[in-house]
Amino acid sequence: MKPPYPIILKQDNIWLFNLTKKNNMKAQIKKSKLIVGLFLVASSTMFAQTLNDALKLTTNEQFESADAAYKLLIQTQPNSGDYYFYYGENYFKNDNMEMANTMYQKGADVNPTNPLPYVGLGKVQWYKGQTAEAKANFFKATTLGAEKNATVFMKIAEAYIAAPTKNLTDAFTLLAKATKLEPKNSEVYILTGDAFLEQNNGTKAVENYEKAGALDPKSSRALLKQGQVWNRAKNFQLAIDTYKKAKLIDSMFAPAYRELAEIYLRATQYGNAAYNAKRYLQLNNDCSAKSQYSGILNQAKNYKESVEAGKEALKCVPVNPFTYRYMAYSQYETADYVGGLENINNLFTNQPADKIIPLDYEYRAKLLLKTAKDSIGFNSAVNDFKKALELQPEKIDLNLDLANAYIKMKRFPEAIAAYKVKMEKGKPSVNDYLGLVRAYYPAKDFINTDSAAVQIIKIQPESQYGYLWRAKANVQLDPGNKNWAAKAFYETYLTKVKPEEAEKNKNDLIGAYNYLAAYYAEKKDCPNVKLYMQKVLELDPTNAQAKKVIAGLKC
Q: What one-character DSSP code corresponds to residue 481?
């Protein structure tokens, strides 16, 4: 740096001048140091504010925007372990553990004495079940001056609380240390509330969230956490009211709208869910938010809108398993089975195996069942239904879907077995017995067809189907119509079919009319034969047999 004054050679005759200049120089040096100091303070404050802004973007779930902010921060301080750690946190909260680990490792490489990157590395290991390695990194973090760093204790505790494998005992110990170091840090109390919530102690959880709110009255997160307690307790209205308070504190706090959308989904208020999801997207237009919007619309049963939102999300991120998932689900519900199968296959191709959920197998099975053209497709559907049942055995209705797949493959004994499994594990329904008759009848087990139809009539005596299947079964059980065993059932069946249902049931109605006409022909009851043949012609004016019979009648 150039001196702020001219260089003067020391000479006797200019001593006084030099003394004067020296005093001036001292003043200028002091002033320069002050300017430099102020600049450094300003720069430090500027960077701190920028980090806070980046952290706020992450909290607001604007992960892509936060990504850009962290890149800029690292350009200014490439050896900052803090920046790399929080950059990793941004990836972690966006469900990208591998990139998070990469950032944590870079932080440890460029700043090996900073404890936070080791916390990040340990957290990834803890989530992966590598407990020994995780604890080694946590220990390293706590030995790097962490006795004065509450954040280290809090972040380790957060991992113990949030991961699938919990360690709440150590979490409480760490949070107690953090509280002692920073008793007015609202985040400590939020994490303590989270730990109590994992113990299903909602009272203590709310107490700590309220403490956090008292310490930081502008904390929307503290209210959001309270709302999550009421949500878990299924007190939907109180949860909704709490989220609304969070919005009043910060109307730009996007997670409050997402949480509201999700709770409205649980309360089956789909219109409100869609509205808040749209508001969430307006506040957070990142790619991940667009994908979430598609998912919420799917769950709100706005299937067409979900597909369109998914298309927009894929323009932003062309390969996104989350988007593929909800597009496929919605396309199944809108009968776009080919498009749905393409997206569900994209999901399975691009999603790690441990991130595939039971519903993915279920929807792929359903889509395969709708699009299969050969035994390969049907077998794939069967395998996926079995996998879905293996992962969620409590979802016994999937046995009906499995049975339907077997029926399409004409594997009737296996279909019957699937129906029986479903009926044994739950209360038998009309649909169960209807499924059984569809399997028994083509398997030529007419006695059991009749027995299942009897049960349909018992459960729904006003339904046409029990009488129809009793009639069909008894036609087969009475070869040559020796006893006309199906007559009474066909007659009752005809009384149950509403006029507006005639076209839909055309073939079965014609079968009933033909049977009754044959009965009256044997009894030589010409008017009734003509009556039933005319009914056939009403449904099928070109029916040659009916025309021939009527032409031959002499009544």
A: G
Instruction: Report residue 39's pLDDT band, with 50, 70 and 90 as the boundaries.
Output: very low
The pair of structure tokens assigned to 170 is 């150590």
Nearest to 302 by CA among 273, 323, 322, 280: 273
DSSP 305-323: HHHHHHHHHHHHSS--HHH
Q: According to the model, what pLDDT value does residue 91 have?
A: 96
Residue 250 makes CB contacts below 8 A (sequence gap 6+) with 218, 220, 256
Q: For the purposes of burial, counting CB atoms within 10 Å of the CB of 11, is it exposed (0-12), middle (13-18) or buried (19 or more)?
A: exposed
Residue-wise pLDDT for 483-531, tens only, equals 999 999 999 999 999 999 999 999 999 999 999 999 999 999 999 999 9
Task: Tell me, letter by letter, the H, E, C secondary structure of 60-120.
Answer: CCCHHHHHHHHHHHHHHCCCCHHHHHHHHHHHHHCCCHHHHHHHHHHHHHHCCCCHHHHHH
**Can you tell me the distance from the alpha carbon of 540 to that of 508, in angstroms, rounded to the nearest whole number?**
12
CA nearest 225: which of 251, 264, 198, 252?
198
**pTM of the entire structure?**
0.70
**Assigned token pair, 549:** 């019979």
CA distance 260 to 267: 10
Q: How many residues does the chain have?
A: 555
Give the CA distances from residue 492 to residues 35, 215, 481, 488, 497, in Å, rounded to whole numbers and listed in that order.
101, 74, 18, 6, 9
Contact status, residue 194 vs residue 186, Cβ threshold 8 Å: no
Average pLDDT, rounded, for the chain: 89
Q: 381 is written with which tokens?
A: 């559907």
Round to whole Å and give the CA distance between 105 and 299.
Answer: 38
Alpha carbons within 13 angstroms on the beta-carbon side of residue 157 total 27
- Count CB-CB contacts under 10 A for residue 232: 13
387-407 average pLDDT score: 94
Please give the C-alpha separations between residue 49 and each of 44, 53, 68, 212, 518, in angstroms, as whole numbers. 9, 6, 15, 22, 91
The DSSP 8-state label assigned to residue 1 in this structure reads -
- The alpha carbon of residue 110 and the mean position of all alpha carbons in its chain are separated, in whole angstroms, by 37
Q: How confident is the model at residue 146 (pLDDT cuts 50, 70, 90)?
A: low
From the CB of residue 99, how many other CB atoms can be counted at a distance below 10 Å?
15
Amino acid identity for residue 471 in this structure: A
Q: Which two tokens stand for residue 114?
A: 């900073």
